[in-house]
Design goal:
- By secondary structure, this protein is mainly α.
- It is built from 8 helices and no strands.
- The protein is flat and about 70 Å long.
- The termini are far apart.
């Protein structure tokens, strides 16, 4: 499989950048949903519900084939990264919301008693505690994103499975490349889970 490493690199790029997008954007959605204004919460809630309840494949097709008609054209890889990051941000949003709501009320009261500015309350008191609580759940979505990367073949992104299929069609050998790809997914998932457990222990202590 001469192009296996190319496919592996693409898969890791999608996973890494897509995870960052989903984590950051998910936090933004969660914070916006706490704004005391329906003019903010209603459109954010509508958009995130729509994205969460439509298939990732449909969203990728929309970004790749429809958006260029509106003047927004990206490469297949960029479209895939944006699509998978946006899709999973609507799930990480719910994780962050749960983490924020799990912070004891006394922490809010203590910040108020100390007369901390709202920005300081969030950055120094609330978010650090909330993030510690949600790392395991966020890690689950990293693994889910990894398993969804083969969907990007639909918009011509040759990640690991795409390269394996290309090799199989050229050589008429299917068992070896697909076995290698299956093992690669298992190894990456395992290493990612170990890294997330280490991060969780570091945050807890």
């Amino acid at each position: 499989m001469p192009h296996f490493w190319d496919g592996l690199l693409v898969t890791l790029q999608v996973l890494a950048i897509g995870s960052v997008i989903s984590f950051v954007l998910g936090l933004v959605w969660a914070l916006l949903m706490r704004v005391p204004s329906r003019w903010v919460t209603w459109p954010v809630g509508t958009v995130t519900e729509f994205v969460r309840n439509t298939p990732l494949l449909v969203q990728l097709f929309f970004l790749f084939y429809v958006m260029p008609e509106w003047g927004l054209t990206f490469s297949a890889l960029t479209t895939g990264v944006i699509g998978i990051g946006l899709h999973y941000s609507t799930y990480t949003m719910q994780v962050y919301r749960a983490g924020i709501e799990a912070v004891p009320v006394g922490q809010w009261e203590a910040a108020t008693a100390l007369n901390l500015p709202m920005r300081r309350t969030w950055t120094a008191v609330i978010l650090p505690q909330a993030v510690r609580r949600v790392v395991p759940a966020l890690g689950n979505y990293v693994i889910a994103m990894l398993k969804d990367t083969p969907i990007l073949m639909a918009i011509t992104v040759l990640e690991m499975l795409g390269e394996a299929q290309l090799f199989a069609r050229e050589t008429f050998q299917f068992t070896e490349p697909l076995t290698v790809i299956g093992v690669a997914f298992i190894v990456i998932s395992y290493l990612a889970s170990l890294a997330l457990r280490a991060l969780e222990r570091r945050l807890v202590h």
